[in-house]
Amino acid sequence: MQLPRPLTLIAELSYQCPLHCPYCSNPLHIGGETYRHELETEHWIRAFQEARGLGVLQLALTGGEPMLRRDLVELCAGSRDAGLYSSLITAGTLFTRERAEALKVAGLDHVQISIQSPDPADNDRIAGNRSFEKKIAAAGFAKELDFPLTINCVLHRQNLDRIEELLDLTLALGAQRLELANTQYYGWAVANQEALMPSWEQLERAEEAVKRFRERVGPKVDVLWVLPDYFEDLPKPCMGGWGRTAMVVAPNGDVLPCQAASTIPGLEFANVRERPLAWIWNESDAFAHFRGTDWMQEPCRTCPLGRQEVDFGGCRCQALRLAGDAAATDPVCRFSPHHERVVAARTAEPTDEFVYRTMKRPRTLEIGSEP
Amino acid sequence: MTRPRLVTGARLRYDEVREEHLLLIPEGAVKLNATAAEVLELCDGERSVDDIVGALSARYEGADLSGDVQELIDAMAQKGLVVDAAA
Predict the structure, then answer these.
(1) Nearest chain B CA: its distance from A38 CA (Å)
(2) Which of A99, A102, A332, A354 has a 20 to 30 A CA-CA distance from A236?
(3) Of B17, B25, B27, the CB nearest to A55
């Protein structure tokens, strides 16, 4: 089989973050020993060069909060030297004018700033941190320095009704892109599912608002809107297919096929400290495990819609969580024998209480064991 | 479209690994054929569409490429990838 070429390297530079968003996709055990020892500058820069050699074009500098890395300017320069297109995915609270200028000079290509809600008080409540004003200032610095600006907002029950305000704010900030990411239930979002799960009515209203905005504003702002998994009955090609387009490097150097893959037991993740990225992509167990279609079980194996190469069986982490088997069909699929679990989750009793993301171990919540 | 330019943040490059021309944009890449890459390289916010057609025509022994150039620029503008520097 001709192996696919990766397009994107997702560099999770650090899991440290000043925000405490209850939907964070980082693993629940971010505060544990596993991630304490972050990669050195030279490891990252070597990984960027190796990634380019493999065909990677896009580099996402993310976390946690990537601005907490003191060597971020060097990393941006390293990305530019390697020939990658770099995006900084930040909460914006540390994106001062001075640091933004240094990043621009170093060759950072694109800035993406998260907003938790267009309402300042609501933003700060969801983020668990007073951050709204700093985010707005950060967006201003990005524009002044002529960075292309993306605003991203993770959507859920607590902020979906403010979508019109969010669209207007995006326009006012001069952003070129708005990424409306409906919450996916991995990491911390699992612990907050009842507080985050929207209603059909909320989603429908939001989708309508997006449609009207697109008609009004045209191509000046590219709005990305995707219906959340739990409201679909056919799965999405998670990560564009396992080991097909992207790889994730965790702060400790472990290389994963997706941000949540560490939840899957029995996968062995190779580390960039020890192995070249090409070996990890081409040979390692974790990437080979669910690549292609040979690993599929029923009903995927004889999919009545012939979607094996369309959705690649959906999401492995979701299959593990809802069907108890990472090799099962994603229960989002209507042909999955566990699809009723997805349907039931849509109408679970809602709550407004959050379990906030923290590097400390919460005392009140059972969050799974340390690996 | 008076003086077309690439949208802020879009970068043309030739990918030696895939051996193809690309327009890199935030979190994406648009595949281009060699002619499209040549046209977009001329979309510098200084030249008019006529200037671009003229420059290409001079390179290709007077061939009239006005239809192709206009079509490409329109399609890219519709996707928000080319904007008018005069606007």
Answers:
(1) 25
(2) A354
(3) B17
Helix axes A200-217, A163-173, angle to 10 degrees: 30
- pTM to 2 decimals? 0.94
| pLDDT computed for residue A140 by the predictor | 98
Instruction: Name the pLDDT band for B36 (thresholds 50, 70, 90).
Output: very high
Phi then psi for A144, rounded to 5 degrees?
Answer: -55, -35
> Which residues in B lie closer than 8 A to residue A60 (C-beta atoms)?
27
Adjacency order of strands within the sheet including A222-225: A222-225, A177-182, A149-155, A110-114, A85-90, A58-63, A8-14, A246-249, A255-256
What is the model's pLDDT at position B34?
94
In the predicted structure, residue A371 carries a pLDDT above the cut 90? no
Residue A277: is it exposed, middle or buried by C-beta count within 10 angstroms (0-12/13-18/19+)? buried
Q: Mind listing the pLDDT tens digit for each residue in A12-39?
A: 999 999 999 999 988 888 888 888 899 9
| Contact partners, residue A68, CB within 8 Å, separation at least 6 | A13, A14, A16, A17, A18, A94
